[in-house]
Amino acid sequence: MGKDSVVEFRRPEAIDDPLTELLREGAKRLIQQAIEAELEEMLARYALVRDERGRRAVVRNGYHPERKILTGIGPVAVKIPKVRSRHGESVVFHSSLVPPYIRKARRVEAALPWLYLKGISTGQMQEALEVLLGPEAKGLSPAVISRLKRQWEREYEAWCRQDLSKDRWVYWWADGIYSGLRAEDQTLCALVIIGVNDRGEKHFLAIEDGVRESAQSWREVLLGLKARGLKIAPKLAAGDGALGFWAALSEIYPETRQQRCWVHKTANVLNYLPKGTQPKAKEALREIWNAEDRASAEKAFDHFIRTYQAKYPKAAECLRKDRDALLAFFDFPAEHWQHIRTTNPIESTFATIRHRTDRAKGCVSRKTILVMIYKLGMCAEKRWRRIRGFTHLAKVIEGVKFKDGIAINEHTKENRNAA
């Protein structure tokens, strides 16, 4: 180790790690929801018990002060509800998940995949929570778990009806995500759309099941968005060329420009080349989408076609057929290029979800899988930042024309000054 090297040791709870914080927040919400479901189960047992005035004998009565459980990824704050008894019998709510005075969870790192997978996809929440808190969680009944899952389903259903008319949606990313889980003996594909609003904020707009290559499946998704208030077409949509999405988009939102994802296109082109040729070809493709301006990109595009046309015509044709859609991003602000030329917002988010669903076994209902993907997606969404150069979105909405990433009026001024 060099003399200038500095090694900093920090306590686990002080580590500023976005993924750890995301998991901590997810664990917090999950534990709190489980406690609330546990309380509802208890209140249901007393639903028919009345006091002398005919009122329910056992009712909610606020919360105890918030306290923290120390875990392997830092402290997780929880609030334990209180109940009040209106008749002679003393009734106290004790959570079997977080008993009084417990301050430390056990093996939380091992529990997190279970919390998100087993707890949501297969209903084995009790087993998951036993990993988190040990035998203290054994009292969590199947009825509580079922109530908790129904709550998540209601959240997803309400989200699917959410009004979208309050925001102007400028960019979209679309993709079909296959999970490792089976629904009704078929591997489920989630049709996903993420949008950017006029403030530069990214949000999930749709998470529906369907067929990735089916125009009809995507048509139903887009018509659903329109019915929820998304009347104005986005300015640009990015996605893989193999999607049935494009046919549906041309029908429902014909004004929207199309941008093919360079990550998908690169993989598709390289599939037609021998492995020994792929590294050099990949670099040649990178020179296209990394070009400073459209003219340089067009030159690099033509060079790739000339280089590989003779020996690998399928690779050349795979690139050529989507030329206009691959270079559409040059007509938008340069600050947005890194966001809109790929579907990375979807790919990066669902890499984690794929990892978790691939570890789950067995067949579960399509609703359960969609709810799981929704819950994981909403958790990830909270960590997203606004896109770079979001102030330029107003110009895009107004219809200002861009050339090589610069507004045309500004581009003209630059040329005049250079002269």
Q: How many strands, which pairing sense, and closed or not: the largest β-sheet?
A: 6 strands, mixed
The helix content, as a percent range, equals 40-55%
* Number of structural domains: 3
Structural class: alpha/beta
Residue share in β-strands:
15-25%
Notable traits:
419 residues, alpha/beta, Nucleotidyltransferase, domain 5, 3 domains, 6-stranded mixed sheet, two-stranded antiparallel ribbon, 17 helices, 46% helix, 17% strand, elongated
Q: Would you mind describing this structure in some detail?
A:
The protein has 419 residues and is an alpha/beta fold. It folds into three domains: 12-158, no CATH class; 166-259 and 344-388, Ribonuclease H-like superfamily/Ribonuclease H (Nucleotidyltransferase, domain 5); 262-341 and 390-419, no CATH class. The chain is built from 17 helices and twelve strands. Strands 5, 6, 7, 8, 9 and 10 form a six-stranded mixed sheet that branches. Strands 1-4 form a two-stranded antiparallel ribbon. A hairpin with a 2-residue loop joins strand 5 (169-183) and strand 6 (186-197). The longest helix has 28 residues, at 18-45. The chain starts with 17 loop residues before the first helix and ends with a helix. Mean pLDDT is 80; it is low at 1-16, 104-114, 116-123 and 355-363.
List the helices and strands and how they pair.
Layout: H1 18-45, E1 58-63, E2 67-71, E3 74-78, E4 81-85, H2 108-116, H3 118-122, H4 125-133, H5 142-160, E5 169-183, E6 186-197, E7 202-209, H6 215-227, E8 236-239, H7 245-252, E9 257-260, H8 262-270, H9 278-289, H10 294-308, H11 313-320, H12 323-326, H13 337-340, H14 344-359, E10 363-364, H15 366-381, H16 393-398, E11 402-403, E12 406-407, H17 408-418
Parallel strand pairs: 5-8, 5-10, 8-9
Antiparallel strand pairs: 1-4, 2-3, 5-6, 6-7, 11-12
